[in-house]
Design goal:
Protein name: DctP family TRAP transporter solute-binding subunit
Distance between the termini: 75 Å
Order of helices and strands: HEHEHEHHHEEHEHEHEHHHHEHHH
Organism: Mailhella massiliensis
Largest sheet: 9 strands, mixed
Radius of gyration: 22 Å
Subcellular location: Cell envelope
Family: Belongs to the bacterial solute-binding protein 7 family.
Number of strands: 9
Strand content: 15-25%
Keywords: Signal, Transport
Structural class: alpha/beta
Number of helices: 16
């Protein structure tokens, strides 16, 4: 009995000593996502949260809050809320954080990334290269922790009027864009009338005919949103890409043990592969489909062009000559924003993409 009581007291002491470490972890961590849970973006966030919960045996319980819930619909306020700790994690668009981090406008330079022999290889080269490191440094200077990349995809144009074959076809067209300045410059240069509308209000704009069209990634947003309900024309022009940033509040990150930080980074790396596969499905050499099959995560739509055509959409796939015309029409935008972003960063990205050709 004496030995038994001694063992109980020792166990109690161990419990007391370990309690503060356990108490340092929250019961729930909030992860912010702008679009719906069913979007490729939302699915990627959920995949990350599920992996983390499983591999930490529930020590880190992340709950995804889609639909810009945590920022009252104002997507460009997300970075500030992560810095303040109102949001623990965010799978954030570079576009939405670019007003505070000018360098993140890099991949929004019109026809900058896609104007390469292999646009996906070019994007990977930026993230893996010198320019990607420069982007991460710029993000972390704001006081948040960068964990990994994701992908929403190349942004294509859908309209209720069309088809769009040349810049003149866009003249006076009211197009929904997110409220970041580079978008206004791009569509103004193309003769359109950009309308800055938060995503939480965008669908209402489509329903009421307030705008004539919008631009978003095909798999990530347009397919899951069933954009053909309002728009009958799809312009496949790849004018910019929307990388995603998986980030955490710095204090939250520092509260995790080194072992759990390593697990989070591993889960982020797997989320990146999943996120990119969802984004590129139907547009690459078939490797995305094979990867999704290998993890048993194949979505309902694997041929986006076929699906859009079956739903009555007219698809215009730009030729090299058409891209050249739009590239020339937006030269002034690239010139202006190269200075805003930083010429050193733009040159580094060009070098990274060239090396990957």
């Amino acid at each position: 009995m004496k030995l038994f009581r001694t063992a109980l007291m020792a166990a109690a002491c161990v419990g007391i000593l370990s309690a503060p470490a356990l108490a340092a972890y929250k019961q729930e961590y909030k992860l912010s996502v702008v679009p719906a849970a069913t979007s490729g973006w939302g699915l990627s966030a959920t995949y990350f949260a599920d992996l983390v919960r499983e591999r930490t045996d529930g020590r880190i319980n992340i709950k995804v809050y889609p639909g810009a819930q945590l920022m009252a619909g104002k997507q460009t306020s997300e970075l500030l809320l992560v810095r303040r700790g109102a949001i623990d994690f965010a799978l954030a668009s570079t576009i939405n954080w670019s007003p505070q981090v000018q360098e993140l406008n890099l991949t929004a330079l019109p026809f900058f990334v896609a104007n390469n022999p292999d646009r996906y290889k070019a994007m990977d080269a930026i993230e893996d290269g010198k320019s990607g490191k420069m982007l991460v440094e710029a993000v972390e200077k704001t006081g948040v922790k960068f964990i990994g990349w994701g992908e929403n995809g190349f942004r294509e144009l859908t309209t209720s009027k069309g088809p769009i074959n040349k810049p003149a076809d866009m003249k006076g067209m009211k197009l929904r864009v997110c409220g970041t300045p580079i978008f206004a410059d791009i569509f103004t240069a193309l003769g359109a009338n950009p309308q800055a509308i938060n995503w939480s209000e965008a669908v209402t704009g489509f329903q009421q005919g307030i705008v004539d069209g919008q631009e978003n990634p095909t798999n990530g947003i347009n397919i899951t949103l069933q954009i053909w309900t309002w728009h009958k024309y799809h312009t496949d022009w790849h004018y910019m890409i929307d990388p995603l940033l998986l980030t955490a509040n710095s204090k939250v990150w520092d509260s995790f043990s080194k072992e759990d930080q390593a697990i989070l980074m591993e889960c982020a790396a797997e989320m990146e592969k999943y996120s990119k596969a969802l984004s590129r499905l139907g547009f690459d050499d078939g490797s995305s489909l094979e990867y999704l099959k290998s993890i048993n995560k194949v979505p309902a739509v694997t041929d986006p062009f076929k699906t859009m055509e079956e739903k009555g959409m007219t698809i215009v796939k730009f030729t090299d000559e058409q891209v050249d015309e739009f590239y020339a029409a937006t030269q002034s935008v690239r010139d202006k924003w190269t200075k805003e972003i930083g010429e050193e960063l733009v040159k580094a990205a060009e070098a990274d993409m060239k090396a990957a050709q």
